[in-house]
Design a protein that fits this description.
With about 80 residues, the chain is an all-alpha fold. It is built from 4 helices and no strands. It is about 50% helix and about 0% strand.
């Protein structure tokens, strides 16, 4: 049984999903700090963050923001 589980453990070591747009956002220091605070706040929706970024001419879609917040993107491994 241990051998079968080892296959699962090896698969867990694979790098998570694609790198998201967080790495390529072009924000000033104050906006980046505000974004990071919003990302850490459960009361701010991903859709709201998307709209806030669009107002700053940045593109990052809400479902990718949600993936980033869950740690399911490659950014968590950078």
């Amino acid at each position: 049984m241990a051998d079968a589980l080892e296959q699962f453990r090896e698969l867990q070591k694979i790098t998570k999903g694609p790198r998201c747009a967080y790495q390529s956002l072009d924000l000033n220091e104050a906006d980046l700090q505000a974004l990071n605070e919003a990302l850490g706040s459960a009361s701010i929706t991903s859709k709201t963050i998307q709209k806030w970024l669009e107002a700053r001419s940045q593109v990052w879609v809400y479902y990718n923001i949600a993936r980033h917040r869950r740690g399911d993107c490659r950014c968590a491994n950078v």
